[in-house]
Here is the input.
Amino acid sequence: MSDHKTIQEIENEIVEEFSLFDSWDDKYEYVIDLGKKLPLLEEKHKLDENKVRGCQSTVWLVADYANGKVHFKADSDAIIVKGLISMLIRVLTNHTPDEIINANLDFIQKIGMTTHLAQTRANGLLAMVKQMKNYALAFKIKNSMTHGERSAETKSN
Amino acid sequence: MIQSNTITKELDVYAIRQQFPALNRQVKGQPLVYFDNAATTQKPQVVIDALVDYYTNYNANVHRGIHTLAEEATAAFEASRDAARQFINASSREEIIFTRGTTEGINLVAYTWGRKNIKAGDEIIITEMEHHSNIVPWQILCEEKGATLKMIPQQDGTLLLDEYKKLLSSKTKLVSVVHVSNALGTVNPVEEIIKLAHQAGAKVLIDGAQSTVHLDIDVQALDCDFFAFSSHKVYGPTGIGVLYGKKQLLEAMPPFQGGGEMIKEVTLEKTTYADLPYKFEAGTPNIGDAVVLKAALDYVSKIGKAKIRNHENELLAYATEQLVQLPGLRVIGNAANKVSVVSFVIDKVHPQDIGILLDNRGIAVRTGHHCAQPLMACYGIPGTIRASFAMYNTKEEIDSLITGLQKALKMLL
Here is the structure.
């Protein structure tokens, strides 16, 4: 499992997987397949407050924090977007808030998804990344406050 | 090539295509199929050349300079106003105001005529199929004035005129209606809408953003009070458009923005305003694009709108016939009178996924709510896939769209 892999290692894995595809159709078929396999989000989470703004499709994202690690769940009514979130979740879930905040996520460029997707949709992807990092940041702040640590050095990115 | 003295019934689409350089490009390794014409059209070489010519040879500020370049720029700028007047058959050039586009034209009317004439308790009527640009300016105005905004409902792309008649009353001060729906392609019966509004004592604004490129526009025959359109949807440059208004209305309206160009005389105590149309054209206008608008309008007129319309209607019929054969596909908006726009949804598939996979084959369509969220809400859908055709599109391109859709569906379902 990915428990012991760093975010960078998982990113590298994805880049390597994509390098096997010859055509864009193959890449999209893979992303669509990921979208279909992503576990469904329970209806109770499909609330307005969990929607990610800035996407043409509807994207719901929820996160929880346990044992120092953040876990993400997401869903979308559009399957390609769902496949893209599935990859983001694979990379970011089960990591510490700091690891998530500092992740550079350049695998998105390396597999060609930002340049290939039109600007508006790429913005949707960026909105998702931002939202995931915001969750991590929120957990970090909450954590430092509940542990009585000084949160003055908490950086916002 | 199309010869101006040759009378051919059919439009020579392959000759036309040669005149649009953007159509030669490849997208994702495939020849571009551009079906997003309702958003903006590609530009013919004559339009591109006219823009280059302006900046290369006679760029100058208009109206004030006495030097040669300023005179040439002013002459070209005003010739473009004449071309626009002729294109929509306004009775005088004073009635043609250059704007940034349809949106600014509508806002100009809302902020000047609207602010002066709309009072608490008054009503403004729009339709359920408006673009946001013909909803939001009126919402802002109604909120400011304590007036009410009402919508003429539609069914399967057709406005319910009986409902419209019920909405009209002595409280109605303005009816602002889209001529052709950008999301559905419906051609609305504006002649009747205008007549009924006038009988109720209301003024009428026609949003011509989508109609001007397809239909013959005669603002005098329509008898509308205002008509707005954008250059970039008529094969011209972005950033320029036209607002037509009846002269006596424009004369009675306060200015929109203050500044240079729109004044007669300025003292600290009082400013008198310039005559029409300059009263509504504060500051240095978008001269380059205004000048080039003439090249675009002349281009369309030379080919002939009737000929273009025939060709586009054939494309619409062919596309609709092919599309409805795809399993689970539903055309949104089946009005009897449509321009070359076909909007559709497919069961169990999000429009965005289709848009991405078509783009992957070099096919440009629009997906989403088309800035018409109230309309999408009444269909209970988040958006549609929209293919909109122009004079340069072909049946072969529609075949590519169908093949692209079949492949996309195979991947998605």
Remarks:
- Residues 119-146 of chain A form the longest helix (28 residues).
- Chain A is about 55% helix and 10% strand.
- The longest strand of chain A covers residues 59-66.
